[in-house]
Amino acid sequence: MDKSGILVTEVWVMAGAALRLKSLLEQLLEAELPIRIRAWDGSAAGPPDAPALVVRNRRAVRRLLWKPGELGLARAWVAGDLEIEGDFYGALALLSGLVWERDDTRSGLRVLRDARTRAALFGLVRLGGLPLPPAPPREEIRRVRGHLHTRRSDQRAISHHYDVGNGFYELVLGPSMVYSCAYWPDPDATLEQAQHDKLDLVCRKLALRPGQRLLDVGCGWGSMAIHAAREYGVSVVGITLSQEQAAYARKRVADAGLTDRIEIRVQDYRDVADGPYDAISSIGMAEHVGSEKYLEYAQDLYRLLVPGGRLLNHQIARRPMTDESAYDLDEFIDAYVFPDGELAPLGTTVTQLERAGFEVRDVESIREHYAHTLRRWVANLESGWQRAVRLTGPGRARVWRLYMAACALGFERNHLGVNQVLAVRTPESGASGLPLRARTWN
Questions:
Q1: Helix axis angle, 385-392 relative to 394-412, nearest 10°?
Q2: How large is the average pLDDT for residues 350-378?
Q3: Quick one: pLDDT at residue 106?
Q4: Of 128, 311, 328, 379, which one has the greatest count of Cβ atoms within 10 A?
């Protein structure tokens, strides 16, 4: 090692771990850290008034070195190797430009050519912090080779996300048990009121009337089915791939005295064969479909509708990329939250619906509503943290806190969107059945 490298190394060995970590992270991320670092030896470095990223042990260093960026940070967070002190949202916002909003697939080993980084790593080795990469936390899904979005792979992905215990979802979602963007009449409304208003908005957009048949694709815990049957007098078939959701929804239906009007099935949308239906709701389900299967999804729903029937497709969107045909897979969300989930730009979704034969009649963007919804869910989780840990384990609870808070920021900063697309299977006569004045929903 040259003379300058030896001098730098001596500084790293003498300094506290936090200063060494700060320099190493800045080398790996190629940017100055806007957040404070506090290390396992009690040392700290960085802006004194900023939120602190607490590095609890040397294992966190190995995770970040071997997988710089989002996935390494997520693994360290889920395993409890990292913590955030201070403003949680503020810390995520400061880190987002360095981690979530950059395209970085480099291995940490590529930066070892830099003498200063080698010196920093030498100091970490002296602390016992470097060797082989740790195994991923057990909450990370184990990949199985094969094609995406087969019936079997979709069943497995849905089970990973939804079959974590209904008690946990009760804690996070509250009494409404609706796991999709609420529709807020005002910021001070209760979460339950906002979810009620969302369900009612969907029913009005679909123009539901007594005696009609509604197919609820991805019915969750049955909230949409119950609202539509009770308030609008329709018969509902709700489908889900989650056994736990189906059992919970059936009990709710029975408790509401609606078993004569609601059927809950564990069924893939591709296997529904008892159409036609007068209306279809798909709320927060299409994100699971995937780019290769999306046209098939749209064609299947088109086939299941009567002429003049309406589809309400409520779906998260991402901003367009350079390659308009590409779908974006988020490393953390794909590994821990929604395996195989794919987000498309709004324009791509509308195009696929039109290719399937639908006439798209209305698009409503409600992304600010989702940011508000997510912050309420995070607040529910944080206030019931000990119970959440007992129900799912600390790793899973940490996954959900990071996921929901980061997504809230994504919607607030216009990196994510969510849209309700109303589409019609317009008959050959051209009579869509919609009112002349938009958004009266009668």
A1: 120
A2: 98
A3: 46
A4: 311
Please give the residue that has the higher pLDDT: either 335 or 374.
374
Backbone phi and psi for residue 256, each to the nearest 5 degrees, phi listed first: -85, -5
Helix (H, G, I), strand (E, B) or coil at 250: helix
Residue tagged active-site, from 181, 203, 219, 407:
407
Residue whose token pair is 């100055």: 32
- Sign of the torsion angle spanned by Cα atoms 90, 98, 403, 179: positive
Q: What distance, in Å, lies between the first and last C-alpha atoms of the chain?
A: 77
Is 407 labeled as catalytic in the residue annotation?
yes
Strand arrangement, sheet containing 52-55: 44-45, 36-38, 52-55, 82-85
Q: What is the pLDDT of residue 65?
A: 75
Radius of gyration of the CA atoms of the chain, in A = 24
In sequence order, what are the beta bridge partners of 417? Answer: 317
3-state secondary structure 128-194: CCCCCCCCCCCCCCCCCCCCCCCHHHHHHHHHHHHCCCHHHHHHHHCCCCCCCCCCCCCCCCCHHHH
Which domains, and CATH codes, for the chain? Answer: 3-126 (no CATH), 151-424 (3.40.50.150)
* pTM, rounded to two decimals: 0.88
CA–CA gap between residue 98 and residue 64 (Å, rounded): 13
What single string gives the DSSP state of each residue in 3-69? HHHHHHHHHHHHS-HHHHHHHHHHHHHTS---SEEE-TTS-EES-TTS-EEEE-SHHHHHHHHHSTT
Which single residue is written with the structure tokens 């329709």?
Answer: 234
The Cα 127–Cα 145 span in angstroms is 38
Tokens 């029975």 belong to: 254
Cα(222)–Cα(311) distance, integer angstroms:
18
Q: For residue 389, which of 375, 406, 401 has the smallest C-alpha distance?
A: 401
Angle between helices 243-255 and 151-162 (to 10 degrees): 60
Q: Can you read off the two tokens belonging to residue 429? A: 């006569």
Half-sphere exposure of residue 127, counting CA atoms within 13 Å on the CB side? 26
